[in-house]
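Please, structure for the following, as tokens.
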Amino acid sequence: AQDSLLSVSHGELGVGLYKMGNDFCDTLGVLDTQGEAIEVALYDNYLLVANNWAGLEVISIGSGENVLTHLAEVEVNGWVKHITIWNDIAILSCGENGVFLVDLSDPEDPRVDQAIDSGYTYTTYVDGDTIYAATREGVKRYSIEIR
């Protein structure tokens, strides 16, 4: 959720964007995704989708008839399960393939900045410039250094 917007992953059916109020919920848009939408994150005027085997998908949030428009995708060596946002970086948890940092400074052309060999990673949390990765071996800590 971000302000009055709520984004929802619909698994194999894609994603949805909704406007919430005290006594209403309006559907702004629904879009089929490239893969299985496991998790979503709002980033500025974009919807980021952890698309399992299809990587990270970037969807533009507009207005009018086509509120949600596919913009770009990023393939990583692993299935994307979870997204954490830090500034202009998407931190992707990719199961047995660890963690990938994706530079979103140009959302139309997102790029993998680096991979972190963290072992099997379920999810991440960022505090300051430190990534805490929940892995099969326990919580691991990494400093963020953008290249």
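The longest strand covers residues 25-31. DSSP finds no helices and 14 strands in the chain.
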